[in-house]
Specification:
Blueprint (H helix, E strand, L loop, with lengths): L8 H24 L13 H12 L3 H18 L8 H29 L8 H12 L17 H24 L1 H20 L10 H4 L2 H23 L8 H21 L3 H24 L5 H4 L2 H8 L1 H15 L7 H27 L6 H4 L35
Helix pairs in contact: 1-2, 1-3, 1-11, 1-13, 1-14, 3-9, 3-11, 4-5, 4-6, 4-14, 6-7, 6-9, 7-9, 7-11, 9-11, 10-11, 14-15
Length: 406
Amino acid sequence: MTQHPASTGAKIGVVNGLRGIAILMVVLHHLFIPFAGSNPMHPGQLAAGIFSAFIADAWLGVHIFFVLSGFVLYLPYRLGRRRIEAGADVWSFYLHRAHRLLPLYYIVVLVSLALHAQTTIGSRGWMLEAAGLLSTLFVFSPYGFMPPSNIVLWSVGVEIWFSLLFPLLIMAIRRWGIATVVTATVAASAIFMFVGSSMPVPHVGTFRPFVNGIFGTCYEFVLGMLVCDLYVRQSEAASRRPIHNSVTLMSAVLLGGLALYLMHNSPWLGGRVFGNVLFSTAFATLLFCSLSAGRLLRPVLETWALQVLGCMCYSIYAWHGIVMNDMIPPATSTLADTLRLAAPFTLLILALSALSYRYIEFGHTRDWKALFLLRREDAPPKPARVGISLLAVEPNERPVENQPAP
């Protein structure tokens, strides 16, 4: 049977590698953001200035996850392996997604509430935070958008709400086409970001549910779906034109640079909103470039270590804030403390995340070597189930490299 070109494992290896880069960005941001002040970019402090600029923007790794999530969730539907045509299909998707996302999420929520609650356990404030976290409704409150017990969970809440919207997007694409859905979603999200940024909230800044929540970020997931559609179309074309990778890559880099400039320097709110949209567009362009040809990027993105980090990114993301607060409290640690503890912190978070990935995320999977990409390509896969991965690649239907079928 002929294998579809868009489903080859090498292509998914690129996605793993990009997820690995994104999780490194997020962890480095949380480790070093207290020390990344505004350093002047003159020869004497050039390195410090570059470091500060990178760390200050490394939080954008979360938005890279959102684009990748849209891509990988849509891929099996775009290839026709799965369909959403009736209520039973929607329910099946929700069950599949809940089984994949919620066990680790709820465990991390309970640990966070027990160890890092900002109010007395059992108090009214604690109960409100617990209810918001367990229901994921906290992402609709400007004061609880970043839960005090574990602020990184905000993006997990956004991901869960996108999962709830995903079947509706599939139906909308089938009815109106992906170009219309992308255009409408980008426009709607830009309006929400503009309005939310115009609404000052005391002690918070802006109305975060509109700016950073599902209202303002849904377009990023949809951009990932668009990349998936374009990539499958390009793979199915009878006579494919060669992809000029260097040109596409340079375009993505230039768009990304312009986006960062607008985000930081535009005197108009509309310009800053446009910068946010442009950054996600630039990464979507980079993703398409990496998937379509990838001679410039694939040797790096498909390295084993980077791919494994990408595979474990949900566990790393979920646990790193808890471990960091206990080992290297951001409010009290100095740069010397952070540098001294960085190595043991890294080892501990990798070990904990590996156990979490193996026994919480995929405890039902027997082929642990496949999970860690250790099985030889020519070895037959063991029967097992691997489901949808948050911030992760979903369509593990064997032609996906080194992972068992769902």
